[in-house]
Amino acid sequence: MSLVSHATSERRGENRWLLRFELHLPYSYETLWPALTTAQGLRGWLAAADVLERRLGGAVMLRWLNTGTVVTGRITAWDVERVVEYTVTEHGRIRFHLEAVGTDSTVIRFVNERGGPEDERLDCLAGWHEHFELLNSALAGHPVDWSTWSDTRWAELREAYASFSRASAA
Q1: Hey, is 123 helix, strand or coil?
Q2: Which residues pair with 112 in a beta bridge?
Q3: How far apart are CA 35 and CA 44, in angstroms?
Q4: What is the pLDDT of residues 63-101, one digit of tens each?
Q5: Distance from CA of residue 95 to its chain's centroid?
Q6: I need a labelling partner for 27 at 20 to 30 A (CA). Which of 2, 5, 8, 131 fits?
Q7: d(CA 29, CA 71)
Q8: How far apart are CA 74 and CA 88, in angstroms?
């Protein structure tokens, strides 16, 4: 069973969305924090952090190695080992809130508040879902090899989210 469940999303005005994931991972928050807040950690599952000033108000530039997308912005929340939030061009507000469950498990409550039409909403739901699967793999000692990445899993997830949306609308 995947540790990543399907996300929820809600409309926040015309072409504005709030995407949410809740992940239950069998790792301490001390293990998770570097994966979310260091250049080496982010590269293993999300993007290259070409600029990452690890403090509130610090600059950030992320380069997705699977798509070439580059975003820039600021760290808009920073509570060590609990909350990090990046507010960046194109992807909007990206927030990770960690909550320890015992000593060896953590819940991540993830929020992405962003603009874009319905197609982009579905693209992002699939993209974040896949990236969270990659995070789990990286934490298990298997960071992604971006040179071999394909969009096969993303396409499967994209179709699943589209099917779910069609069924919900019916």
Answers
A1: helix
A2: 19, 94
A3: 8
A4: 999 999 999 999 999 999 899 999 999 999 999 999 999
A5: 8
A6: 8
A7: 26
A8: 7
- Facing residues of 70 across strands? 63
Neighbours of 23 (CB within 10 A): 20
Task: Determine how many CB atoms are found less than 10 A away from the CB of residue 111.
Answer: 16
Architecture of domain 8-169: 2-Layer Sandwich (3.30)
Residue 154 has pLDDT above 70, yes or no: yes
Q: Give the Cα separation of 80 and 61 in Å (integer).
A: 20
pLDDT digits (tens, 9 = 90+) for 96-136: 999 999 989 999 999 999 999 999 999 999 999 999 999 99
pLDDT of the residue at 3:
72
- Closest to 118 in 3D by CA, of 16, 7, 5, 6: 16
31, 25 Cβ separation under 8 angstroms: no
From the list 135, 129, 137, 131, the residue with the least C-alpha distance to 157 is 129
d(C-alpha 70, C-alpha 105), whole Å: 32
Q: The whole model's pTM is what?
A: 0.93
Rounded to an integer, what distance in angstroms lies between the CA atom of residue 51 and that of residue 7? 29
